[in-house]
Write a structure and sequence with these properties.
The protein is mainly alpha-helical. Helices cover 75% and strands 0% of the residues.
Length: 501
């Protein structure tokens, strides 16, 4: 074969079904971690301002794990398991164990540590799935493949988000003693761990990856040249590396001078770390020893194609809004729709379960939109304008939180957010998969996902300081930031060339 065969509907199902389970895990994490943190700290009056710092583990693990796993999966071949599936399976086993342990957390710090382990495990499984679709499908099926994957993401997130509320409807206790996690949350996490592992096993068992020889044949006359990456890296000056370090030092100085929250030191430290890593990679490349993981990651990051750079800016703003929502929605709904800030109260636990319903709603809308609205819009106005429209719907949904106080009517806001979520999960990856060299799809998808986690890390380190300084005790204002940055993302999308898409 010199080109990938088209996949049937059943083949598309098998390729992406594992993501159904992975997204159950992410949904349980996104909808319930703030609730768990607040539940374990009933006597801490500053817990709202501490939430971003407690969440910092999630984006930090993604920042470190995704490029590494992408690089490794491009170069892995384990016989019958292939190159992407070993990472699906390993991450799924670790994530399932984490989901079992998480609701047994006896204290806040233990829960924060388990969030770190859980998110790292989910990222190990998730990142190769993005490249897996590109590996398995011909270019003309990329949009369809990522739409099917998005539908499974939405369906999995619905199941993960709604399960605590469904357990409450079934009579499972939704309250517990002060500082204890309710049974609805514990059982939901345990169910989610089992579902995640079984779904990933389905994809592992029902798919066969193309061998390195077949992949090379598919590339034809246009193979990815790793030597070009190292050659271009060796030709770089150290100016940009020094600039990264200087930026990090400036951040540390500002944090110290203005006495900002201490988690912002992490942001400065990461900038310095990347600057130092790039200096090491450049010097190794100049010495002829650049063919290392560090050299390839730094070289491919600095040499991203122009299309990828423009989409990366869109991702940065899109995911800033999403992370703001995941951190703050429980506190917002509890305070403004249920009238409580007490993490130990029955009203707070009811609000938290209603947030699960809201999150299930936007994920359900995403699953439907991915298979209906988005393909029609893409055929009608193109992928780029479709993405801009979807992000605009999300901005309207976030802004709606300012005018809607009835918890039932908040479902209307989730419709716009769901359309945006569907577009974020499908359109950028469909555009990229057709424009990037397939032999380096893993590392490029991993680097692209850096622009998913960097904004989350920025929100986790900066938002707490902003809210404590200007909007103490008023989490509703976080939705203003979410609406604004999502609108910026919609405008930035229009800079992407439609011909390249």
């Amino acid at each position: 074969m010199t080109r990938r065969p088209r996949q049937s509907a059943w083949g598309l199902w098998n390729i992406s079904f594992g993501f159904f389970g992975i997204q159950i895990g992410f949904a349980l994490q996104n909808a319930n971690m703030s609730r768990i943190f607040q539940t374990l700290s009933p006597d801490d009056p500053d817990i709202l301002s501490k939430l971003p710092a407690l969440w910092v583990a999630a984006p930090l693990t993604g920042l470190l794990v995704q490029p590494i796993i992408g690089h490794m999966s491009d170069r892995t071949w384990l016989g019958a398991l292939g190159r992407r599936r070993p990472y699906f399976l390993t991450g799924a086993i670790l994530a399932a164990l984490s989901l079992f342990v998480m609701p047994l957390a006896p204290a806040l710090l233990f829960a924060a540590f388990m969030l770190w382990v859980l998110d790292a495990s989910l990222n190990i499984s998730m990142e190769p799935f993005r490249a897996f679709v590109g590996d398995m499908l011909p270019r003309e099926q990329h949009a369809t493949g990522y739409a099917v994957q998005t539908a499974f993401i939405g369906a999995g997130a619905v199941v993960g988000s709604i399960f605590p509320k469904a357990l409450e409807w079934a009579g499972v206790a939704n309250t517990a003693a002060a500082g204890a996690i309710p049974d609805t949350v514990r059982y939901a996490f345990w169910f989610g761990g089992a579902a995640l592992l079984l779904a990933v096993l389905w994809t592992v068992v029902t798919t066969r990856e193309y061998s390195p020889t077949e992949m090379a044949a598919f590339e034809g006359d246009h193979p990815a040249d790793a030597h070009d990456t190292i050659r271009l890296l060796a030709a770089r000056t150290l100016t940009s590396s020094v600039a990264w370090i200087a930026g990090g030092v400036l951040v540390l100085a500002v944090v110290y001078r203005l006495a900002l929250q201490q988690e912002m030191y992490l942001l400065g430290g990461l900038l310095i770390a990347y600057g130092l890593a790039s200096i090491i990679a450049i010097r190794l490349a100049r010495a002829g020893r650049g063919a290392s993981m560090l050299g390839h990651i730094v070289g491919d990051f600095s040499g991203m194609p122009p299309l990828m750079k423009r989409l990366a800016l869109v991702q940065f703003f899109s995911w800033s809004a999403l992370f703001i929502m995941w951190i703050n929605t429980t506190a917002i709904v509890a305070q403004y729709s249920f009238g409580t800030r007490d993490g130990a109260s029955a009203a707070f636990q009811q609000a938290a379960n209603w947030v699960d319903v809201l999150f299930a709603t936007y994920n359900g809308v995403a699953a439907i939109a991915a298979l209906t609205l988005l393909p029609w819009l893409a055929r009608t106005v193109g992928k780029v304008r479709t993405h801009a429209i979807g992000l605009g719907c999300g901005a309207v949904g976030y802004a709606s939180f300012f005018v809607i106080r009835n918890p039932d009517l908040l479902i209307l806001a989730e419709i716009g957010i769901g359309i945006a979520w569907a577009s974020i999960l499908a359109m950028p990856y469909a555009i990229l998969a057709s424009a990037l060299p397939q032999a380096k799809l893993g590392i490029y998808m991993g680097l692209f996902n850096v622009f998913v986690v960097i904004p989350q890390l920025l929100v986790a380190t900066v938002m707490g300081s902003i809210m404590k300084a200007w909007f103490p005790g008023e989490p509703i204002w976080t939705m203003a930031f979410a609406a604004a940055v999502m609108a910026i993302a919609a405008v930035a999308t229009l800079r992407v060339s439609e011909s390249a898409a």
